[in-house]
Structures are given as structure tokens and as C-alpha cells.
Structure prediction request, 244 residues.
Amino acid sequence: MKHPEIILLGGCHVAGYLVGQENSFATKLSGLLQGTIVGQVARVRVVDLPEHLKLVEEKQPTHVVLQLGNHEFSASLQTMLRQLTRALGRVPAARKPKGNSDKAGSLSNHSARGQLLPPPHRFDSLRIVSLSILSALLWVFAKQFRNSMRALNACMLQHPDTTFIFLSPFPCQAAADNAMRDFGGWLLRHRVAALPNRYWLDSHQLLHPDRELFSDPWHLNDQAHTALAYSLAGILHGNAAYAH
Prediction:
């Protein structure tokens, strides 16, 4: 059996933001599988996927782990406006937000000093529904999103001996953003082709928005990274409670 060779593409959690690279789920998974990480890119936006998927052709890995959507699925109206303007070609699509991409676009739930504000009022549900509808329209009709998903599905089809594992957008403690990320997981799962080499891990089933699992309101702690690594390893070893 080939020694596991793993590529990881995703948000800042892939690089172990706040817990350190050595404590990230990526490093822990590699250790559990006794494998080697041959490619690792953090802060990946969905619209940039075609460029990053070239790594799969170059490295020919046994496994590809993708953790997508934390940036795209936000309860921030500003983030949605930026995505809409990019989709309309009003700003350069290659321009990336400064700083931490998972946290960017979520500032509407923070005070000026970075403190978490109280949970969203129940009337914010209308905002969440509206943003969810706009997100769905973007993913289905916007050229950049269509091209990215087409490239991703083609990549899986062209590499049937490579196992592709998708992690849904991670939960967070801000209620509105958590709802958006949960919806994002549902939408992403339905945009990815249901091929035999595709597996899915719903992080919202595995990790509840409990304070014991977070380093801060937006980022998972070491305990959560460990849970992710063991669940991913379970999928790869055939104990796939969340697979397909």
C-alpha cells in the first residue's frame, strides 16, 4: 500500500492559527495516518481553487483534504457586498482581504475593541435568510463560483485513485455566522459531485459551538483540532460515520 501523501487546502485552521502548526488537525492527521503532507495552502478562497488544484496534478497525492467556505459564508453584509461586486466584475477577483481570511468579514459581530457582541436579535433571522439566498444565487450563477466548482469536480473525476475529503465550514460562537456556515456546508455539499472518491465530514455535527472548543469566538482550539483529525482518520480507515 502506498505511503499516504496528503494535500490540504483550506482556511487559516489548516495552518493551525492560534494553536500552532504542530497542533493543527493537518499535522495530527498526518501523524495518525503515518503519512506525509506534500502540499498545504491556507486562506484559500473558493474562487481561487482552480489555481490551487494544480497541486493535485503536480503531486499526485493519495489524499486531498479541503476545508472551504469560512470566508464566503458570513453574516456580514459587507462581505456579501464584496462577493457580489467581484461576481459583477467591479473589483479585481484576485485581490485578497488583509489579515486572517476566516475572521475577515465577521467584524460586524465585534465591537471596536474586538469583543464579541451579544448574540444576534431574533429579527436578524431575516438578514440570515436574505444572505443565504444571495449566497445560493452566487454559487449557482456567478461565473467564478461555477468555474471553481467545475474545476473541482473535474479534478476528482480525473484522479479516481485519490481520496477527496471535504470539511464543512467550521462552527463559530457568533450565532448568525454559525447559522450561515451551517447553511454553507449544506450548499457546498450539494455543489460537489457525489463521486466514489468523495467523502464529507460535517463539522457542525462533530463540533458544537461550545466555548470549550474555541481559542476565540472564531477559531477552534487544540481539542477541536484533535477531534477533527481523529474523525478524518476514521473516514480514511473505513469507519466513515460522516462519509458520503
